[in-house]
Amino acid sequence: MKALIIAAGRGSRLEGLTKDEPKPLIQLLGLSLIERVILTAKQAGIDEFIIVIGYLGEKIKERLGNGDKYGARITYIENREWRRGNGLSVLKAKELLNENFVLLMSDHIFDVRILRELLNYDTRSSVVLAIDRRRPLPGDTKVLEERGKIIDIGKNIEESSCCIDTGISLCSPRIFSHIEEAVKEGRAELADGIAKAAENEDAEIFDITQINSYIPSMRKEAKPFWIDIDTEKDLIKAKKLLIENACKGRNDLLATYVNKPIENFIVSRLANTQITPNHVTMLTNIVAYTSAFLFLDGYLLFASILTFIVSFMDGVDGKLSRVKISSSNIGNMEHAFDYLFEHSWYIALAIYLSNTFGTIPVLLSAFILLFDGFSNYCEHAFGKVIKDRPLQDYGRIEQLFRKFDGRKNSYIIFILIGVLLNAPLWSLVAISVWSLVSAIFYSSRTVKYLHDMDLRR
Hints:
This protein is 51% helix and 15% strand. The chain is an alpha/beta fold. Helix 15 packs antiparallel against helix 16 (424-455).
């Protein structure tokens, strides 16, 4: 399916930023607005775009090119009447679209879940408009609907409708005839064309509030978001929104209350640089193995402090990837490398302590690897059967235990306490015991849930 992106207007309310630059090229956390629209649509499976340009349109063509650098194909259409309504921009693409297409605005940032769900929507109407049921704000285009059909649309209809146009829609070529009718009557906005379709009972809504808000990979509830960038305040709001949505939920206490604000601050700065998530991953591993060598040489306090630095660095690369929509196949190896370097700490500490305590520290480190590996396998076995939620977030008990279960952030606290108390061997004892407790907990919960699934067959 193709996507039509309207990028012709100037953005008068952002005049300070659009004097010499078209609004779609305004930067937001390292990407222009229109790049965010393209990359989000790509995540939903769309790789062919028709972009209608107008004000300073050559700059958009120069920045985006033919789409190769985004793994997409881009065709441009110029609308010299860009000062008039955006319905005319839609009409410019009429000859290139003879099948259903997605219609997007270059200044609307949105959650990929909205587009994914909309693409699966079965409709015979000329337009399916994604709407939100939040309270209208000044400037919002409001939608009046009844039983899923659009009755009216515009900025001045009654606010009790409680439906807001998100600027995302699924259209059939019939939408062009409705817009043409509106233009003949002197109304050139896209909303006027949709209103015409509504008069013919040919327009319906897609309610984004009905989308499942739980994201298994992020372990959190998050309503699908969207935001129309019209003012500098909108840019500030969008920045906070994107960073917050890049944060995972149900984390341990250290990650939630210490690491998160540090990570968010770093991500907000790195997003505007050429540093990639893979660069951060490589640096994290370098610091992590430096810590392991320091444990081997007996610089325990310095090594322990570095583990905390690694702890928050380890969260930056994932957030940066999500904020900049720049996931890569090599990035999928991150957790494997995490497992390797964090367990190198316990082995290195054990080898150093073996000079004083013999084989006991080495045995303790072996137990840690054994129990952690078993816990990970239980999570994997659970995920193969129950895919809607990860084990650590499946029930209230798991959610509570997740805050302080056996994992890196708990273990580095044990190490620091042991080093400060001049009892590092007891750090390994505490870690091995807690890894055993975690293994027993997660294995027992996995057995319980999988057994319940078997009984329901």
